[in-house]
């Protein structure tokens, strides 16, 4: 426990550091490709993940995120290109790679009939850990995720947020150097999400590399040092969250809502508004003005004869970047 009475982050594997990231390359992909018969799921992508870094994959359904994660996890062979995980080839050295990874799947695949501690105990057996080591590690991890008081409870009695924390604790039982997280907080309430974020941030501080997919843009901004945006199997953008916002959208967005709904003649409306902002997007229920001069744009709106029900000025977010790159239509 630390000075404030909170559980400290558990010690991790040899590749970790005390604080922050390292220059050690944990994962390197060059021309990474995954095909399923004639379908190209991942199309020649390049990326590098460093020690202690939180690295995120964003993209619409079918973008290739899950296929990429499965190759990193040594669960799916590479079709072509090269992939190194902890200096090893996951296709030929899969067992050695998996022994040094922690996996947090999207679904909470716990044994509901077992207690919280027994779920960790049986999982730890797969890594050949002895009973004494496991007992100490289970206590450390359950205190870390604030579930020590529920150690004897059957999993089926836990809330969704508690189950998610058990899955994260289970993923850390082998002291992994990389933790792969697929949609780590899907379905959680805001309080549970914040607690999970806090625990993941503490792991990153200990030098553990986090690799995650998420549909929550605020989660990506909160957790990730580096992001790639994928679409149709390719990387369409890469960089730190704030840099992506600066590169792909304006500093601010002004949302316009109309008293009688968005005018039917959208071409005329767009032409008129384009003089007020750098970019204009007409949606079914509102119009978005992308601008680097929110004060000037707001003044032009006030001076116009637009029949508005209201306006909202906000800072641009990662969600604006995502929609700009991937579009608003659903890919199923």
Give an account of the 3D structure.
This protein is 32% helix and 26% strand. It is α/β, with parallel strands linked by helices and 332 residues long. The protein has 2 domains: 25-240, Rossmann fold; 250-315, Alpha-Beta Plaits, CATH 3.30.70. A 6-stranded mixed β-sheet has the order 5-6-7-3-8-9, sandwiched between helices. Helix 3 (116-125) crosses helix 4 and helix 8 (241-248) crosses helix 11 (318-326). The termini are far apart. Residues 1-5 and 14-21 have low confidence and may be disordered. Belongs to the ABC transporter superfamily.
In short:
By secondary structure, this protein is α/β, with parallel strands linked by helices. It has eleven helices and 13 strands. The protein folds into two domains: 25-240, P-loop containing nucleotide triphosphate hydrolases (Rossmann fold, 3-Layer(aba) Sandwich), CATH 3.40.50.300; 250-315, 2-Layer Sandwich (Alpha-Beta Plaits).
Index terms:
Alpha-Beta Plaits, translocase, 11 helices, single chain, four-stranded antiparallel sheet, ATP binding, membrane, antibiotic resistance, nucleotide-binding, Rossmann fold, 2 domains
DSSP helical segment count: 11
Report the uncertain regions.
1-5, 14-21
SS-based class: alpha/beta
How would you describe the shape? globular
* Whole-angstrom Rg: 23 Å
Mean pLDDT: 90
Q: Which topology of the largest domain does CATH recognise? A: Rossmann fold
Largest sheet: 6 strands, mixed
Look at the structure and give the CATH class of the largest domain: Alpha Beta
| CATH homologous superfamily (4th level) name of the largest domain | P-loop containing nucleotide triphosphate hydrolases
Euclidean distance between termini CA atoms: 46 Å
Q: Residue share in helices?
A: 25-40%
Question: What's the number of structural domains?
Answer: 2
Number of strands: 13
The appropriate CATH architecture of the largest domain is 3-Layer(aba) Sandwich
InterPro entries: AAA+_ATPase, ABC_transporter-like_ATP-bd, ABC_transporter-like_CS, ABC_transporter_ATP-binding, P-loop_NTPase
Protein name: ABC transporter ATP-binding protein
Region (Disordered): 1-22
GO molecular function: ATP binding; ATP hydrolysis activity
């Amino acid at each position: 426990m630390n000075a404030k009475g909170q559980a400290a982050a558990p010690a991790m594997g040899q590749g970790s550091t005390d604080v922050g990231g390292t220059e050690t390359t944990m994962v390197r992909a060059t021309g990474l490709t995954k095909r399923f018969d004639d379908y190209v799921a991942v199309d020649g992508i390049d990326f590098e993940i460093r020690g202690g870094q939180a690295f995120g994959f964003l993209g619409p359904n079918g973008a290739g995120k899950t296929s990429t994660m499965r190759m990193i996890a040594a669960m799916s062979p590479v079709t072509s290109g090269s992939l190194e995980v902890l200096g090893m080839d996951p296709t030929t050295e899969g067992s050695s790679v998996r022994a040094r990874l922690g996996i947090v799947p999207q679904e909470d695949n716990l044994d509901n009939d077992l207690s919280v501690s027994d779920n960790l105990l049986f999982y730890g057996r797969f890594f050949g850990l002895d009973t004494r080591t496991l007992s100490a590690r289970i206590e450390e991890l359950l205190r870390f995720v604030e579930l020590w008081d529920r150690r004897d409870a059957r999993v089926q009695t836990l809330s969704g947020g508690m189950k998610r924390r058990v899955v994260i604790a289970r993923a850390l039982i082998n002291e992994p150097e990389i933790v792969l997280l697929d949609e780590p907080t899907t379905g959680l309430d805001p309080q549970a999400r914040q607690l999970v974020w806090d625990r993941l941030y503490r792991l990153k501080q200990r030098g553990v590399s986090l690799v995650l997919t998420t549909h929550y843009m605020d989660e990506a901004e909160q957790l990730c040092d580096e992001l790639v945006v994928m679409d149709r199997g390719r990387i369409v953008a890469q960089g730190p969250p704030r840099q992506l916002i600066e590169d792909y959208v304006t500093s601010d967005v002004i949302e316009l809502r109309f008293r009688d709904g968005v005018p039917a003649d959208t071409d005329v409306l767009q032409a008129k508004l384009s003089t007020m902002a750098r970019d204009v997007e007409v949606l079914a229920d509102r119009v978005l003005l992308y601008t680097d001069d929110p004060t000037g744009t707001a003044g032009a709106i006030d001076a116009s004869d637009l029949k508005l029900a209201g306006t909202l000025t906000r800072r641009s977010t990662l969600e604006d970047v995502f929609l700009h790159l991937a579009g608003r239509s659903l890919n199923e």
